[in-house]
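Provenance and format

Records in this collection were gathered into a single text stream. Each protein contributes a sequence line and a C-alpha cell line. The two records reproduced below are adjacent in the stream.
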Amino acid sequence: MTQFFTDSDTDVTLAEARDMGFELISMPYSIDGQTTYPYKDFEDFDSKKFYDMLREGVLPTTSAISEEAYIEYFEPVFKRGDDILYVHFSAAMTITFDNMKKAVNRLKKQYPERKFYDIDTKGITTISYAIVKDIADLKKAGKTPEEIVNWAKTEVDHYAMYFFADDLKFFKRSGRVSGLAATMGTIVGIRPIIHMSQDGKMESIGKERGRSKAIETLVDYVESLGLDIKQHRIVIGHSDALDLVDEIIDALRRRFGDDLRIEYKTTNPTAGSHCGPNGAGICFHAIHR
C-alpha cells in the first residue's frame, strides 16, 4: 500500500485531506514569536479573523519544518510496511525540502525496502491545490504511484497560475517575488500581475491600474494560454476577497460560457502571510505556464 501526503501550503484542508485519503503535513507561521501549525493547532481555518489581523498591521513570519518533523510524519508509515507519495508545494521556494530529503535518506537506511515518491507542484496555494485534486482523482481511479509520478512529469507544467496582490508590503518583506520593482504597488490602485514560473517561483510580469483591469488581464491569460479548459478545473484563489471571486467568475463566464468547472479556495494562512489580504488569482489548464 502507498500512503499519500500533501501539505497545508497546497490549500488542502484537513477535512479534504481525509476525504481524499491523504495525510496532511502542517507548514507553520508565527505572530509575535508564537508559532502556529495549521490543522494541528486548529481544525478549521478562520480566514476572516486571520486576514483581518493582517489588515490591522500584523506581519506574520514563516519557517521551514525540520528534518525531525518529517521523520515524525513518515516513519510510522514506513514502519507499518507502506510506501509514501508526497505531493508538495514548490521546492524552489524553501529549504524545507532539503530537510525532507535528509529525513527520507535516514529512513531509507532503516527501511531499505520502502519506496518514497515525491511530486513537486512547482507552485503554492491554488495551483498546488488543483494538482493535488487531480492526483486524488488518479488515485481514486486506481492508478499506481509510478503512473501518477509519470503523469506529473509532463502535466505539472500544464497548470498555470496568474494573480494579483493588493498590498505589496507582505511580498516585499518576504522577497519571494522576482522582478518586483521596489516602487510597484505604492501608487494607489496599481496591482502587479504575478505568475508561477516553470521553475516553481513567483515572478512579477506586469501591472494594471484598478482591480477590474487586473481581472480582465487574468482572463486574457486564460484565453491566450488555456488548453482544454472546459475539461479541467478552473480554481480561483483568494485571500479573504470573495467579492473578487464573484467578479472573476462573472468575467470567466462572459468570456467562455457557463459550462466551466469553477472552484474557489481561500489561501492558507502560511502562504497568506506572504501575499496579504485582498488578493486573487486564477489557476487553469494551459499550453504552458
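Adjacent record:
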Amino acid sequence: MSDRENLLRNVQIADFALVEAGLFLDTHPTDQNALEYFRTYQKELEKATAAYQAAYGPLTARANEGGRWKWTDGPAPWERAANV
C-alpha cells in the first residue's frame, strides 16, 4: 500500500468509526463510553485528515484553503494516480 493509500485508509477508518458511534449515540445518548469513543475518533479523524491534506491536498471542496481553488488540482482522493 502506498503512503497516499495508507493516509486515506486512516481517514476512512476514523470516519467509519465516527458514523457508527453516532448511530449508536442516537439511541444511547448518555452512554459515557460511547461518547468517549466518539471523541477519540473525532480527534483521530482530524489528525488523519490533516496528515492527508498536508501531503496530497484537500479531501473535500470544503477543505480548500489559500488564495486559489485547489480542489481540482491533481487526482481526486478516490482516484488512483498513475504512479501510485
